[in-house]
Amino acid sequence: MIMRTSVRLFAAAALASGLLAGCATTGDEDCTKAAEQAITDAKTAVAEVKALNNEWRDTGSLLESAEKALNDGNCDEALKLANQSLEQARTAKEQAIAENEKFMNENAAMESSESSSRSAGAMAGGADTYTVERGDNLWDISGKSSIYGDSFQWPLIYKANRDQIKDADLIYPNQVLDIDRNASSDEIDAAIEHAKTRGAWSVGDVEQSDLDYLNK
């Protein structure tokens, strides 16, 4: 009787041990699958944020550590590190998108402002001539609200007065300059482009780029 009871207890213990072992194995497999999936998701997110040139310093190293931990059989650590890498990559992506939208909005606002300045400068009622005062230059004259309200349009004045302005960097008091009020949008764009790409101001030396602009 005692022997049968012992056998039964041993069998029950063995069965319980087998079940427990089976549960542990199943748990390890689930953990491994979760870690592998997290690493895959993190790799995708990191690739996306790299394409946006906004990868955080530690994101890649976290992902590498996650892969190493998984290879070493440390599933829980691998899952934790992979999720950290994934979270960083997602946050960095959101940050990059927000910064890009901000840049686009600011650029659009700047272009709108420049367009308004051009329109204001071209409106009828502005001065048709300007008498040069001591200390004046074409940049400052063009920027006056009564002229173009945009300093980058100074080449228009230079071109309209090419007969009396030999060097765009050198004008004289009491010169009476004509102000072009009929410039087309293409002419205004060309003037602004020249102003933005021209070389440094240098009194006494006629810029070749100025001569090229006049000949267009």
Task: Explain how this protein is built.
The structure is a single chain. This protein has 216 residues and is mainly α. It is rod-shaped, with a radius of gyration of 37 Å. It contains 7 helices and 2 strands. The protein has a two-stranded antiparallel ribbon with strand order 1-2. The relative contact order is 0.08. Helix 2 packs antiparallel against helix 3. It folds into 2 domains: 101 residues; 88 residues, Membrane-bound Lytic Murein Transglycosylase D, Chain A.
Compose a concise summary of this entry:
With 216 residues, the protein is mostly helical. Helices cover 67% and strands 3% of the residues. It has helices at 2-51, 59-71, 75-122, 138-143, 154-160, 185-197, 208-214, and strands spanning 129-131, 176-178.
Could you name the key traits of this structure?
mainly alpha, 216 residues, Membrane-bound Lytic Murein Transglycosylase D, Chain A, two-stranded antiparallel ribbon, 2 domains
Domain tally: 2
Q: Report the structural category.
A: mainly alpha
**What is the strand tally?**
2
Unreliable stretches covering 5 or more consecutive residues: 1-25
Order of strands in the sheet with the most strands?
1-2
Distance between the termini: 116 Å
The rounded Rg comes to 37 Å
SSE succession: HHHEHHEHH
Report the helical percentage: 55-70%
Biggest sheet: strands, sense, closure?
Answer: 2 strands, antiparallel
